[in-house]
Amino acid sequence: MADVLLGYSLGVKRGDTVQIKGAYVAEPLMLALYERCLKLGAYPRILASLPDAETLFYRHAADHQLEYVWPTDEWSAENVDVSITIISETNTRALSRIDPHRQLVAATARKHLMDTFMRRASDGAFRWAVTMFPTEAHAMAAEMSLDEFEDFFFRACLVDADDPAAEWQKVAERHARLLEWMEGREEIHIEGEGTDLRLDLAGRKWIPCDGTTNFPDGEIFTGPDEAGTEGYITFTYPASYRGRSVEGIRLGFERGRVVEASAQKNEDFLLTTLDADPGARVLGELGIGTNYGIVDFSGETLLDEKIGGTIHLAVGASYPESGGVNESAIHWDMVCDLRRGGRITVDGAVLMEDGILLV
After folding, report:
1. The domain containing residue 185 runs over which residues?
2. How many angstroms separate the CA atoms of 17 and 173, rounded?
3. Distance separating alpha carbons of residues 312 and 206, to the nearest angstrom
4. How big is the CA angle at 59 (ends 108 and 56), to the nearest 5 degrees?
5. What's the CA gap between 296 and 141, in Å, rounded?
6. Vertex 334 angle, CA 329 and 337, to 5°
7. How far apart, in Å, are the Cα atoms of 247 and each of 48, 101, 330?
8. Which one of 100, 118, 133 terminates a domain?
């Protein structure tokens, strides 16, 4: 994992400043990354956290503490060359009872950090990757034993191959052919159970995801026209965000904005998040999952949005490199499975049928 992340994914070299962030339970991976960064001549820094500290922060912090931004975080946003974030939860529902308004206060105060990261990444001045370290909590959420989840995860990362980097290069080549077919097309139509949605993509750029930012990876994405989404969509799987799981989400769009929103579970949290700021009801991303090595829902968005035969939409902030211009303090991915009766057409031509890419 460390070799592929630092070599193929991020191209870490002598003199790079590298920030390695994760909970202490990810120590084996953090130390492997740290050691290899030192051998490469980089300047690594480990930021290990205690999982329960975040819960205590949101439970007890006063408003002025929620809004406080450490100067070191602002320096990192402007100056760090490489950032690696490791998802490694010990309790995937630790924030379930936290008031979402308190999380929004903190997120709004830190929006400028996210804006800086996105701008620098789009300019090529900043490289980042998000991965995970399997834990008992993630295994339980996926309804697997830990060893089963570890096998599932590392296979999805292709690190069991003799040459993982070569396997990810093959993914990149497949994506290149897919993007060549998509070039210049302007409208995508998504149909499925409880779903009939049209998105305007004119002038937007599709981005291939081949293991260089998310790990594992396997998707192509773009930023839809902010005023060009019409119709409705029902998301197949629970959508987790900031420690909350929202089930049975259905969104209706007019002229690019969410005008109807409902959920079977935690609807109040969904509505509160959509009202976080003016951009929260606008789509910042449309992604198509292409990793057919991931077949089962796990409850971790990093994996679930890559499932081959699915699409995901994110309400909130756009990635500037896609041509999207929507701004928000949130970016919430939601996954819709199209493997049973779903279809995607692009300018009238069929791209996906029953989850199978026909291009």
Report:
1. 174-357
2. 30
3. 14
4. 100
5. 12
6. 165
7. 31, 20, 19
8. 133
